[in-house]
Recover the amino acids of this structure.
């Protein structure tokens, strides 16, 4: 395995540990989500599975049309499949805990297990998935894959013995993802915020950004119009993700109560009350 490929995969690990740290910090500071290490780890595993599935689909679509493009990991697949995997996991866990609590209520021997929440899981997923993606895009830059269009400034790359100047699209996308997550932190402090909105909000914003970024990525001319004669595969996926995210945000807003992150003093008071319990 080449050094650049090792750095590529190492970047995902760095993203995972950063997301893990942020989740635990948020838990201890605000006591907002349940501290379940195994669920963080599953997110990472699900993300790789989703990226592998999307990479395979991408490869099959383009190779079936005569192109030689091949993708091992396509990170957009993680955006689409991770929430589905996680929600199914949490629903199964809810059913198991419900049965266990019924049994414990009959015997009275043990305390009931605390409830788990799909909404809290969606809030947890936003930093998990997109931080790993952001660092993964930095890995793309280090590996030299997913490069941008030719331009008068940018990165110097050599292909087939010729030097090209390519737009640093991987760095741009990573920067946009990090900026999006910083903006999310402030959005979560506003009164209009509802539990569970973090993931569909970020997925919707990312899909809109990705739609535009696709114009800056390198493709053979026919590949740019493979869907409906005017879009790439990922632009079509971005439209679907944006639409489903918009519906999810609307439903969560209408069915949830305002739950912004508490201010620092309120958080300290909430923690002390929790400890007394």
């Amino acid at each position: 395995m080449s050094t650049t490929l090792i750095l590529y995969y190492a970047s995902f690990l760095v993203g995972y540990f950063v997301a893990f740290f942020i989740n635990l910090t948020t838990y201890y500071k605000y006591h907002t989500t349940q501290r379940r290490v195994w669920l963080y780890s599953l997110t990472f595993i699900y993300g790789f599975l989703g990226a592998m599935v999307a990479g395979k689909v991408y490869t099959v679509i383009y190779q079936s049309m005569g192109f030689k493009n091949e993708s091992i990991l396509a990170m957009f697949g993680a955006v689409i499949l991770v929430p589905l995997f996680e929600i199914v996991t949490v629903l199964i866990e809810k059913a198991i805990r419900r049965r266990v609590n019924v049994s414990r209520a009959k015997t009275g021997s043990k305390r009931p297990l605390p409830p788990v929440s799909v909404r809290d899981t969606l809030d947890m997923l936003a930093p998990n998935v997109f931080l790993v993606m952001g660092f993964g895009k930095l890995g793309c830059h280090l590996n030299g894959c997913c490069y941008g269009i030719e331009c008068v400034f940018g990165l110097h790359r050599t292909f087939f013995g010729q030097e090209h100047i390519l737009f640093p699209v991987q760095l741009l996308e990573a920067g946009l993802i990090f900026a999006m997550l910083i903006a999310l932190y402030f959005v979560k402090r506003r009164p209009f915020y509802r539990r569970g909105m973090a993931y569909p909000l970020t997925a919707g914003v990312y899909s809109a950004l990705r739609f535009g970024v696709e114009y800056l990525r390198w493709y053979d001319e026919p590949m740019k119009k493979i869907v409906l004669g005017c879009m790439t595969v990922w632009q079509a996926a971005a439209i679907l993700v944006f639409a489903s995210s918009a519906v999810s945000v609307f439903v969560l807003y209408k069915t949830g109560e305002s739950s912004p992150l508490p201010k620092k003093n309120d958080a300290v008071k909430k923690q002390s009350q929790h400890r007394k319990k």
The mean pLDDT is 84. The chain has eight helices and two strands.
